[in-house]
Write a structure and sequence with these properties.
Elements lengths: L2 E5 L2 E6 L2 E6 L7 E4 L10 H6 L11 E6 L5 E6 L3 E6 L5 E7 L4 E6 L5 E6 L3 E6 L8 E5 L4 E6 L5 E6 L4 E5 L6 E5 L6 E5 L7 E6 L3 E6 L4 E7 H4 L8 H4 L3 E6 L5 E6 L4 E8 L5 E9 L4 E6 L5 E5 L6 E7 L2 E4 L4 H10 L3 H7 L16 H24 L8 H11 L10
Antiparallel strand pairs: 1-2, 2-3, 3-4, 5-6, 6-7, 7-8, 9-10, 10-11, 11-12, 13-14, 14-15, 15-16, 17-18, 18-19, 19-20, 21-22, 22-23, 23-24, 25-26, 26-27, 27-28
Organism: Oncorhynchus tshawytscha (Chinook salmon)
Keywords: Nucleus, Repeat, tRNA processing, WD repeat
InterPro entries: Trm82, WD40/YVTN_repeat-like_dom_sf, WD40_repeat_dom_sf, WD40_rpt
Length: about 425
């Protein structure tokens, strides 16, 4: 899985087992962190004695990463259950390497940057201290289903978690057992969350049902909903594969004036802008048609949209918003610098790319119970007809049940009556 993020003037990308940071303004040496060569978890002798030799091993693939609001800290987690904390100013260095209990799906820094929160596949959320970088994680809350996305609201008031069972839960950050609200309405798993900058009361969510919804998260009230397939003018399809296009990324520009939405395996990006009126709303503004499917996207501090593509020839595109439209800046010196710096890592990028859905196993199974019922009913009726035919056709010389009963009745003596004198 390839991903992209902006960390100040650094553009950070992850490909398979590597995190690569490239400075977009200066010709500085890229920072490369390879999880396959990272610190290994110390062996526990007691655990080795109890082990039966079937212990699960990870692949070192990066599963999630996060950038702090000040762009001074970065964290990643991988398939080997590492949690690595970095400092990127004034230079990149590893602060600590810790281990999570289970494989994580989402990471997020608190606004105070004193903690990094990790959501995992079992539905649990742990917090890890940044101030004490060697301290083990603390369990904060749990879902009954796999967690897929997590975000924090402004001022670290709430933690918002989304799971495979379509639920979005809003919990108080400092007392997560205290649930503020649920945002319910998606028909499939919730795959992406965003608390857009500049709008402290809003929450955006994307789902495997192909929709994006806008919520007032404190009350759980839904404000708006968009079917992204309809916005792409896609005709209705009878094939299940074409129906399924999960929202894989929602990104907000600095200040919250623009929102970019990416759906997996779709070669376009849908953009939304603020509609000013009696009350603020989001409105679809434009759609960027891409030469290849996007792997990820992000806004940089200048508000430019960076798109990572599934292409060796054109791995990046940069878009700038000017005069109410988005223009591709193909001659951007920053894009050329990033592209050149990542040339030695194209093989890893190709391993991460591809059109294979990373959400396919999360969809609900669809069963046509009515068709099965009709088929079984038809079989029962056919069996009954066959059995009924055998009963209605007696063999030669045999009497029917009705005739036999009448014969028996005729042979029985009648009641005795007293003769009249």
């Amino acid at each position: 899985m390839a991903s992209l993020g902006a960390c100040g003037e650094w553009l950070v990308s992850t490909y398979e087992k590597k995190l690569i940071a490239v400075h977009t303004k200066k010709n500085r040496e890229p920072f490369v962190f390879d999880c396959s060569a990272a610190e290994q978890k110390p062996k526990d002798p007691e655990a080795d004695n109890k082990s039966d030799g079937s212990e699960e091993t990870g692949s070192d693939k990066i599963l999630a990463f996060a950038v702090s609001s000040s762009a001074k800290l970065v964290a990643l987690t991988d398939d080997t259950k590492r949690l690595v904390l970095f400092c990127c100013e004034p230079s990149w260095q590893v602060i600590s390497t810790r281990w999570v209990v289970r494989r994580c799906t989402s990471l997020v820094f608190t606004e105070a940057e004193d903690e990094v929160w990790a959501a995992d596949k079992s539905g649990d959320v742990y917090s890890f201290s940044v101030v004490e970088p060697q301290k083990t994680g603390e369990l904060k809350l749990g879902h009954l289903s796999m967690l897929l996305s997590m975000t924090l609201t402004p001022n670290d008031k709430y933690v918002v978690t989304a799971d495979r069972d379509e639920k979005i839960r809003v919990s108080h950050l400092r007392s997560p057992h205290n649930i503020q609200a649920f945002c319910l309405g998606h028909l499939e798993f919730v795959s992406s969350l965003l608390a857009p900058p500049g709008h402290p009361q809003w929450l955006l969510s994307g789902s495997g049902d192909g929709t994006m919804k806008l919520w007032e998260y404190e009350s759980g009230r839904r404000l708006q909903s968009w079917d992204l397939k309809q916005l792409r003018d896609m005709p209705n399809s009878d094939t299940e594969k074409e129906k399924r296009s999960a929202v894989s990324r929602i990104a907000g520009s600095p200040g919250g004036h623009h929102v970019a939405v990416q759906c997996e395996r779709v070669p376009s990006v849908q953009l939304f802008g603020m509609a000013q009126g009696t009350e603020e709303r989001l409105m679809p503004s434009s759609r960027l048609t891409l030469p290849h499917c996007p792997l990820d996207l992000t806004f940089d501090p200048q508000g430019r949209l960076w798109v990572l593509l599934d292409s060796r020839e054109t791995p990046f595109l940069v878009y700038t918003h000017t005069q109410d439209s988005w223009q591709c800046d193909s001659e951007s010196p920053e894009m050329k610098r990033v592209t050149e710096a990542l040339q030695p890592h194209w093989e890893a990028l190709q391993d991460s790319a591809g059109l294979e859905s990373r959400f396919q196993h999360l969809y609900k199974g669809n069963f046509d119970n009515m068709a099965s019922y009709r088929e079984k009913k038809q079989q029962r009726l056919q069996q009954q007809n066959e059995q009924g035919g055998k009963k209605r056709g007696p063999g030669k010389g045999q009497q029917s049940n009705g005739a036999s009963k009448k014969a028996k009745k005729g042979n029985q003596p009648g009641p005795v009556t007293k003769a009249s004198s």
